[in-house]
Design a protein that fits this description.
This protein is of the alpha+beta class. It has seven helices and eight strands, in the order H-E-E-E-E-E-E-E-H-H-H-H-E-H-H.
Length: about 220
């Protein structure tokens, strides 16, 4: 008995490293005992984990963001664009995020990529360029519904950039230039019309007074 207590006294400081675990304020611990879920979540603070019987998984409860890789998307009007986005999410159920999905972060990332392609494939180029907020909100709703069973809450989705092919950029620049030239010609034609009306009124005034014609001639000569 004395030898047993001696071994306990000698190895107790080393066993504390495996028995006592520290969980941070922003973390929660999910504990499995003999392969079965024992505690949904515990912490923060110091918790006791029995070696060889219990296993612990720490889950970060903070909001996490990740960039969705640029996706080559064919729009509804057959235009190829490259779009990337950023997703903000957090874990609201630690036990479900560990037990129901192998890797919640990677699964959410892959789902965001496919959802981005599916949503943008139903939009035209003009809608993608003008309705970014509506597209982001629609993506957030889709991701939030799909990740609820994983214990993940998608808080925000933002479409960062929409990149067009160089040829499409040139075509849009040419179209915009032609539109500006057309408006300039219309404005010039309206000015000519107003000027002709003013000249007609001036001619009628001069016709009523011959002296006015002489004064106009002298002014022009000066």
């Amino acid at each position: 008995t004395g030898l047993t207590w001696l071994f306990v006294a000698l190895f107790f400081p080393f066993s504390c490293v495996f028995i006592f675990r520290v969980v941070q304020e922003f973390e929660r611990a999910v504990i499995f005992r003999l392969g079965r879920l024992w505690k949904n979540s515990t912490g923060p603070g110091v918790i006791v984990v029995l070696p060889c019987i219990e296993t612990m998984t720490k889950v970060d409860m903070r909001t996490v963001s990740f960039d969705v890789a640029p996706q080559e998307v064919l729009t509804k009007d057959s235009v190829t664009v490259a779009v990337d986005a950023v997703v903000y999410y957090r874990v609201f159920n630690p036990a479900v995020s560990v037990a129901n999905v192998e890797n919640a972060q990677e699964s959410t990332r892959l789902l965001a990529q496919t959802s981005l392609r599916n949503v943008l494939g139903q939009k035209s180029l003009s809608e993608i360029l003008q309705d970014r907020e509506l597209i982001a909100h629609h993506m957030q709703e889709i991701l939030d519904v799909a990740t609820e069973c994983w214990g993940v809450k998608v808080e925000r989705v933002e479409v960062k950039d929409v990149r067009l092919p160089v040829q499409m950029q040139r075509a849009m620049a040419t179209e915009a230039e032609a539109s500006r030239e057309a408006r300039a010609k219309v404005i010039a034609a309206e000015g000519e019309q107003k000027a002709s009306v003013a000249l007609r009124d001036a001619a009628e005034v001069i016709n009523q007074s011959p002296v006015a014609l002489q004064l106009r001639y002298l002014q022009t000569l000066t």
